[in-house]
Amino acid sequence: xxxxxxxxxxxxxxxxxxxxxxxxxxxxxxxxxxxxxxxxxxxxxxxxxxxxxxxxxxxxxxxxxxxxxxxxxxxxxxxxxxxxxxxxxxxxxxxxxxxxxxxxxxxxxxxxxxxxxxxxxxxxx
Amino acid sequence: xxxxxxxxxxxxxxxxxxxxxxxxxxxxxxxxxxxxxxxxxxxxxxxxxxxxxxxxxxxxxxxxxxxxxxxxxxxxxxxxxxxxxxxxxxxxxxxxxxxxxxxxxxxxxxxxxxxxxxxxxxxxxxxxxxxxxxxxxxxxxxxxxxxxxxxxxxxxxxxxxxxxxxxxxxxxxxxxxxxxxxxxxxxxxxxxxxxxxxxxxxxxxxxxxxxxxxxxxxxxxxxxxxxxxxxxxxxxxxxxxxxxxxxxxxxxxxxxxxxxxxxxxxxxxxxxxxxxxxxxxxxxxxxxxxxxxxxxxxxxxxxxxxxxxxxxxxxxxxxxxxxxxxxxxxxxxxxxxxxxxxxxxxxxxxxxxxxxxxxxxxxxxxxxxxx
Lengths: 125, 371
Hints:
The structure holds two protein chains of two kinds. By secondary structure, chain A is an alpha+beta fold. Chain A has one domain (5-119): CATH 2.40.50.100. Chain A is built from three helices and nine strands. In chain A, the strands form two sheets. Chain A has a six-stranded antiparallel sheet with strand order 1-2-3-9-8-5. Chain A has a three-stranded antiparallel sheet with strand order 4-6-7. In chain A, strand 1 (5-6) and strand 2 (11-16) form a beta hairpin. Chain A starts with a strand and ends with a helix. Among the domains of chain B are: 3-57 and 146-235, Probable tRNA modification gtpase trme, domain 1 (Gyrase A, domain 2, 2-Layer Sandwich); 285-371, Elongation Factor Tu (Ef-tu), domain 3, CATH 2.40.30. Chain B is of the alpha+beta class. Helix content of chain B is 21%, strand content 33%. In chain B, helix 2 (38-47) packs across helix 7. A six-stranded mixed sheet of chain B has the order 10-11-12-9-3-13, sandwiched between helices. In chain B, strands 14-17-16-15-18-19 form a six-stranded antiparallel β-barrel. Chain B has nine helices and 19 strands. Chains A and B meet through strand 4 and strand 6 of A and helix 2 and helix 7 of B.
């Protein structure tokens, strides 16, 4: 999957036509373990880059998801709260959390590309 | 704390080989889960069998000194009836302090010429010091630190162990035996911390890995870590020391007074007996209860509990997710007046009130092998 950008908090964003789809990375879901609960933002919610926007919980712990960019939430993955395990099984696909209309495409420059994110993760171990 | 400073059980290398995720626990480097994940391990234990390394726990042997009796001595520091514990039997007990608070929960086995104790890893040093301070004049206290402890738990545990020791089928819940397993003298009890049937096997440390590999080679048995151990015991309604019970909780508040036999209630002779007697007579001001949140949002430890009018009435002491229940579950303490099953509550999670209710424990049926 080319063109994905990544945050230090292990969110990914895929932008098309000014709207970014956001989820958590395979690395993040592996660290979390079995996901049992997700809390999605409301459609219409205004998000700020780096601020908490959603919640994902595993058996053992709760974890915040931060908005990779500022903007407005235009769609959420309605099926995800009923099938939280999808975050583990398909984090880059059906495990997406929400879509956000970017307020400022320039913010994407602050994020990591795939290679940088990969090195970043390797440095964490 | 880096991994080098942590203690290792005899199965440490095996855990790494199996791809376990290791975490510090009570000063040990322990597996929280294996690649299968906590939910998979939990469901495996309820459906077939899981093998846990619980060697970090303390194993202590008490042998009476000449002219003394080990059971009489131990009764001076625990709530349970030890004098009446038959040879080959095992019992749950509590160490208490002078305020009636719980210092630790433990299992006591009577093997005839001595007593064997299994205590929590996080308390084992304090427990040993406590025993030495109180009863060292009457019993020899040995720390069996070189022994490992394996817990084989689940409905298929008997089938698995029977391949090595066919007589294990005859051992009933809370009974114990010394058996030779693959040439090693082991102490086995039919007990556990999961709500399922199972065995705990005390084995010399040098032989533990071999036995673990043998058990894991069986179809029914998969490794299980501390994460699954916690979700299993929470579903089974079993308290965890340091969370649901501690020095600030009495056995009466914790719903554990059942282990204080009638004779002990009448005679006392253990620390805090007066406080406990009073609570038994008057009722405690708060009780440990099961709590079922509505919806899917878990409520974690230390979440405040409020009544529907918004008044704080307690706190969650163990909160998480029950894979067999397929939803969030919790235990906590609430004011006794609000402790009846069905009582509506609110749990404060991230500043929001999650509706919940008091439920009977356990969340799942226990499957112990009774007579």
